[in-house]
Amino acid sequence: MATIAYQTASCLYEGAANPAVDRLTLEVDDGEFIVLVGPSGSGKSTALRMLAGLEDIDEGNITINGKDMVGVPSKDRDIAMVFQNYALYPSMTVAENMGFALKMRGVPAGERRRQVEQAAELLDLSDFLDRKPAKLSGGQRQRVAMGRAIVREPQVFCMDEPLSNLDAKLRVQTRTQIAALQRRLGTTTVYVTHDQVEAMTMGDRVAVLKDGKLQQFAAPTELYDAPVNAFVAGFIGSPAMNLVPALVTSEGVQLGESTLPLERDRLAALHRQELSSVTVGLRPEQLEVVPAGQGIDVRIDLVEELGSESYVHAHLVDDRGGASTRLVARSHRRAPGRLGETIGLRHGAGSVHVFHPDTGARIDGEEMSARVGTGV
Amino acid sequence: MTKHSTLSRAEGWRRRAPLLPALLFTILVTQVPFLLTVYYSTHSWNLVRPGSWEFVGLQNYLYVFRDSQFREVAMNTVILIVGTVLISALLGLGLALLLNRSFRGRGVVRTLLITPFLITPVAGALLWKTAMFDPVFGIVNFVLQPFGVGNFAWVSQFPLATVMVDLIWRWTPFMMLLILAGLQSMPEDVLEAGRVDGAGPIALFRELTLPHLRRFIELGVVLGAIYLVNTFGAIYMMTSGGPGVESANLPFYIYQRAFLGFEVGQAAAMGVVTVAATIVIAMLALRLIFKSFMGAQEAA
Amino acid sequence: MTDPALSGDTTSATVRDTPVAGSAAQSRSSADETRPRQRARRKHRGAAVIWAVLAWLAALVFFFPVLWMVLTAFKYERAAYTDPPTLWFSPTLEQFQAVLASGVGTTLLNSAFATLVSTTCVLVLGIPAAFALSLRPVKKTKDVLFFFLSTKMLPIVAVIVPLYVIVNRIGLLDNIWTLIILYTGMNLPIAIWMMRSFFLEVPAELLEAASMDGASLWTAVRRVILPLVSPGIAATALICVIFSWNEFFFAVNLTAVRAQTAPVSLVGFITGEGLFWARLSAASTLAALPVVIAGWVAQNKLVRGLSFGAIK
After folding, report:
1. What is the pLDDT of residue C33?
2. What residues in B contact A52, CB-CB < 8 Å?
3. HSE on the CB side for A203, CA within 13 Å?
4. Same structural domain for residues C43 and C136?
């Protein structure tokens, strides 16, 4: 049971121009499941390893339950970690692997065995306790790694892409198991992934990182509904949000021949910043497929049929910026159009996201910005 | 069916063709002489006595086992191999641990450390016999002077031990390289997992590093033993096996019998006995090498 | 070595302190915070320095005899025999000249010839064999591999007697080709095992891809496989060079004058009445130099050769 706080914590690698983690500030509540997500090189793993004591905290600090962790070695932090490649001890059996931390803490063998068996039962590993890791399947190894973490009842779980070595089906299954297990144990958890679906489905709150810097730290739905910048907007959601350049007009923003209207206060904000063009963000489900001429006219490049729905990949027909503006729309109909056909896309539910064309920062009206402005 | 099998026979030969020259050559150079050794060992034959060729059955072997010098030499061989292998494995482990961290000039240090293994064995042996162990002008006595060691004659007082010093000097780098390869193949995340699980440096070494190194140390020990069975130059140069046979090993003793005593039959019998004696470690070595090669195949 | 790192540390410390330098209370608390960090760092660094010094010391102890040999080779004899040993002296090439004049040059050439020719033979025989035991394996690959390896387990002394008899009978005693044949046989198993481990690293699909692209097996091997394993071939060759050059047992028993190799030439220095250390050192240096260089070049692959490819 623990609270965690990163306070402008940085990690600098020798010889690197930019910090791997740059003044990260995060507060994690007791029992919370938070996810660090970002593309490779975003510093998410480094941030986790700083918490685990595997990387130096070069500047700032990290506290667990208010206790400063600078200079505290891993072994004294009471943290359990699940590694990407599981890092099981190859020379030890499953039981020995799971009991190792207890052994290091001087727990007597009988008590160790009891706790290991308990955890093994929870994870369906009872039949494998005497096997070596080499003789286990990928999913079983993953569970042993989990078991090794939970057996010692640590203050904090650190998980570094623990699902990335499983096949797609097992990954989905294990995802829910881990989330359920964490709810049941109530242990504060920091989870690193590059997969935004994992981030969205597992985390109580999600921290999006890029180039070592925190972009946004919020609940999954808030990340989805009100991304603070174009990066978060494009990173969260699949297929990704359409981010297209558009001209600012007196009523809204112009895409192709048609204009998407904006609320008055957002227009005011645009004019206050003297912007003539912006980046407009529209999620695929915000675009409806309509007959040509009834919306933004686009030509179909590709239709992806998923059975329950389909995705239309298309480009603007009348595009002053060349043929490079591409849009993806979700359709509930099958075969919404043929390759090369011109159709219309109409803005449906939900408001348009508007981002600064250079900085990528979200542009909101007065009352909106008051709501999401706390993100950064 | 017939067509298939003829095809595959042709294919079989096509695949075998690149292998055959090497196979035939190796059989010719190693197996034929060994069979001759076995054959000679059943004959009494002295090279300098013409017409001494005579079948004597197992008499040479009887002679060998009754020969107290042979027993002493066999014992020397065991001491030499076991002592050298164990000490150089221990030293090699220490050096490998030192080299398994990054510091300025690590490449140079490694290069310097492997040099003794590369130096021509007879040159190395001469070096130890003269410049290092000489009673009056040797470096060893010079270094030990402050400890009250005078002009001590190491080579004549402890012939076997001084040979061993040369061999340990030569074989420690070998062990170091093998163990270092082991250390460097140690997965970093396993050590990190150990640290997170609360293990200190000593526990990490004992519980994780050492079990991982076991295979490498075992391989170093058996391979070292196999190579050390053939030790010859060092003894030839440093002590000539003397005084008496106090520092002779089997190869040197057999050499003396064959080329100084010209007793071909007896020398051959001793050779056969040597092979029989080394079969145990040879099998161990073969198994270990095969195991790691099978392991590599499983992984691939 | 610590200087740049230390100065780097101080600059980062100042950077860290600047933002909170506003109020006295704050800056004091920040100083308190940084102290354990710096202490941890310093302990880190201090330990690292001690380990590095130890490693360097060990290296110097092990290398010292070699260094001493090379130094002595540049001394006059009177400087070689001194108590205490002479470290500073005026160097001379006299010993090298004397050694070369005494015929060591011929033995060096013999060694070079035996080494190079036998290594070539090993590669010519060994590379195809390794190929047949890896990428396009024959039946009973394991048995054949086992056989090759087991020949290396056979103590050399077990074959010397008949070899001597045979070589003597066919008049090849004191002939460099005798050594070439024996060295080829001695190194062939190592080369086959080592080359095999390199071949196994080549994806077998490459051969299939090449044949789908219309290449014959020979072309595929020559154009696709061999370039990939060429570093392995070089390493294998260097290992063979080391073993053949340093070989002593066969050489001392089967050669006399004409085919004498460099290691055997050193024997002459222990049989003379007086020992000439400086001259001996010069001869040893010359005899050892080629393999030392070969070994330094091949050091990353040394383990692989010595362990028959079992350890990468």
Report:
1. 44
2. 192, 196
3. 28
4. no
